[in-house]
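Worked problem 6 (solution included).
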Amino acid sequence: MKVSIIGATGYAGAEILRLLLNHPNAEIMHITSESHTDVPISDVYPHLKGIYDRKLESFSDIEKIGADSDFLFIGLPAGYAMKIGQALKDMPVRIIDLGADYRFHDTSVYEQWYKVAHTHKDAERVYGLAELNRDKIKSAKIIGNAGCYTTASILALAPLVKDHLVDVHTIVVDAKSGVSGAGRSAKLPNHFPELYDNFKAYGVANHRHTPEIEQALTDIGGEKVLLNFTPHLVPMSRGILSTCYATLKDGVEEDDVTKAYHTMYDDEYFIRLRGLGAYPETKYVRGSNYCDLGWHIDARTRRVIVLSAIDNLVKGAAGQAIQNFNIACGFDEKTGLTLAPVYP
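Solution. The predicted structure is:
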């Protein structure tokens, strides 16, 4: 399949490129960057020197890029992908957007949380979390790749919500991310002296991933979910650890919880069940497309606590996009993604 990467110099775009270089069924046609046009990408990312030295181009002629491609991976800020989707709506090229433009069923929710007018409301789109929407992804014209915090949190909670084991009005998600999740642009809070030896919360009660988690869990359980989500920034480059809490319904026991996870995920290659009492760590999944899950039952408070670890740039972004690409193309879902985590 002929593929192009729009926004190849962001962290997610560069990670897509790294992974696609080992994909046997993908031919890279175009890589774009508005800030580094006509510069070899290996000048921007020296780790690619001698491996991939193609020059970056502008996506100003998106119709030509679309005509050359079977798939576009878009790694741009909110508002750009929908313009590309509009421009290419009558062409056969398919889109995987790593941003939020196509994640929501109701575009008014997107507009409320992202403060951007949605200009492609009638787009035929599918939420791109493979373990939940595999069948729909197969034929989707546009795939709205799930976000990083959301992937870790939804996968952690989905079995509990699907089997109606918890009160969905009691869910709390407390998540921590490495700084690469904030993107590559220079920002004062991510400056080394500000970040190093520090640990902080941000986006309390208003982080954009909140409605995305709620939407997915509502779809899974058929009951409206309203939750608290608090993200934190930790001084590491990669990784997310999401700690999710919920109150168990009356009569639900430890075995019911364990059974729910095995029933939903035993056949999922990229979900690794560490099990009851386990403590997943971000280092166990670094550089890989795995999501590691462990769960604990607090009998005293009747609450279940689920721990979920992913690499935010792989399972939380680029790896998930390629997993969706594989599904959409009819390839083995693991193609190009069977990389062992990097340790230590």
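Discussion: The chain has two domains: 2-123, 149-312.
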